[in-house]
Amino acid sequence: MTRVVLRLGDDVSTDAIYPGRFMATVLPGETPRHCFADVPEFGRKLRDGEIGSGSVIVAGRNFGTGSSREQAASCLKGWDLVVIANSYSRIFLQNAVNLGLRLVVCPGIEASEGDELEITQEAVVNKTMDKTFPVQPLPASRQAIVDAGGLITYVRKRLMEDAAR
Amino acid sequence: MGMTIAEKILARAAGLRTVAAGDVLEPVVDLTMSHENSALVINQLEEIFSGTGKEMRVWDPEKIAIIFDHRVPAETAKTATNQKKIREFVLQQGITKFHDIRGDEGGICHQVLPESGYVRPGMVVVGADSHTSTHGALGAMAVGVGATEMAAVWALGRMLNVEVPATIKVVADGEFRPGVGAKDLILYLIGMISAEGANFRVIEFHGRAIKHMRTSGRLAICNMSVEAGATCGIVPSDEETARYLREEACVADRIDSVLPDADAAYDELMEIDVTRLDPQVAKPHTVDNVAPVGEVEGVKVDQIVVGSCTNGRLDDLEAAAAILRGKKVAKGTRMLIFPASWRIWTEAARQGYLADLAAAGAVIMNPGCGCCLGVHQGALGDGEVALATTNRNFQGRMGNPNAFVYLASPVTAAVSALTGRITDPRKVGFLSLPADASGGD
Ligand code: SF4
Prior knowledge:
Distance between the termini of chain A: 46 Å
Largest interface: A-B, 47 and 54 residues
Strand content of chain A: 15-25%
Helix content of chain B: 25-40%
Distance between the termini of chain B: 34 Å
Structural class of chain A: alpha/beta
Bound molecules: iron/sulfur cluster
CATH superfamily of the largest domain in chain B: Aconitase, domain 3
Structural class of chain B: alpha/beta
Largest sheet of chain A: 7 strands, mixed
Radius of gyration of chain A: 16 Å
Number of strands of chain A: 7
Strand order of the largest sheet of chain A: 4-3-2-1-5-6-7
Shape of chain A: globular
Radius of gyration of chain B: 21 Å
CATH architecture of chain A: Alpha-Beta Barrel
Number of domains of chain A: 1
Low-confidence stretches of chain A: none
CATH superfamily of chain A: Aconitase, domain 4
Number of domains of chain B: 2
Mean pLDDT of chain A: 93
CATH class of the largest domain in chain B: Alpha Beta
CATH topology of the largest domain in chain B: Aconitase, domain 3
Helix content of chain A: 25-40%
Oligomer: heterodimer
Number of helices of chain A: 6
Order of helices and strands of chain A: EHHEHEHEEEEHH
CATH class of chain A: Alpha Beta
Number of helices of chain B: 14
């Protein structure tokens, strides 16, 4: 069981998740401190430790639109947040898969801040509303990277196989 | 069933005779591109190699382009230190296509790549920047990725688990009217199909308006294809592509071209008659919030920006200079010009465009990303309005979440600089422009 801590609309850009002026900060260990820097109340709660690990951000369509900056995925991952959205922009989705940020594609999700959710492979159950919303699985090509624990381990293995060939 | 351009390029790169949308492949990569974010790519490459017992080596140092553009010259010690680390890596790995902060070969990555002749029709180009889609203007398949995926390509020389994207065919016919051009076409298209209208798909551009468009205009439309979510935009290579590569990029060797089959399977067909197009403006805070200029006319503008990887090319500066020559930027409005590369800066200076623009009151900035992403110069004050020829107007994009960014063509931006308000460039007296001033022909 987990809770919705932030409800956003459509087309949330990577500039909103991780503003461009912090792009000189690149290391996954350092990016979380600028997560949602321009959403002052939520940003403060994160930094004050008021948001528990595994908490959920719910958004509409095309989450992560815009810049390919990987900081937008690594900063969310750093706080161990889970994102549920109707749909995702291509590069953000791939970055999340590559870095192991937990994303749920849920085209029909209904949820408000404070709602209690249960997330399984197949569905998101909104306990507060007593409603269930089916989850769209990732294509096998992306799931393989998730299952490997992210792109770094996936590529490292391929590198060793190439060398052995 | 025939293949689209993207399918043909990916089939060749994966060593297959045919592929279709949805197939999963491992295409070899012909060229990679990254900028200051190479600092993160290097970090991820170190991660990949750690524990393998192998010495860290990129797969091919001649196929890696690194261009400093986002913060040039460095604005903080942190950026300067990142840039230093990248320079050391370039030396250590023997990377040949490195463009440092220099007045002879520097500039924005999406201009430096084409003008240096690095991109050819049929190539697979992978860039750690979303606007890598730009390079499809030369008939290549050019895809933006994140830093970790870039590191994977540096290590292996190919992309893993690539799903062949479906293709949308856009046919743009007709002739642009004076004061309307490539930027208006792409803004109109994005407004029509929305910011995710082409997500996970390729846009292939056809039609008379594209055929007659110069490469600079094609670069602008492919640049902004990603604003409709497209994996990339592609213009079929033709005589204009060859002309650009020979005359402007000094390419001497063979140029192949990859064209779609007559019976290629397109996911969707869209037709636009550009003759009917008005100048377009994207309103804050999304790129697909597009309206004809008439709808926003009169909005007071604090800062006009002409430049970026979308519209900082020579003919963009030429159009702006033609409009401002002998006139003045309105009092109470600032105008910033940042050419897309030093080569363009030099030519614009030689032609007198920069002097004309400065005499009119514009500030000429150094080539680079400048104020486009709000990290370096030209930030906006609270409540201020910018009209920019850049490609994004997200909240906070120009460095201030309390400011408002509108997007338009260089012609609309330059005319608006004279009045200090968003102005229809076709208004009597403003336009004695050649019809191709904004990338049309
Ligand atoms: S000019 Fe702007 S959009 Fe283009 S590469 Fe630079 S930051 Fe990105």
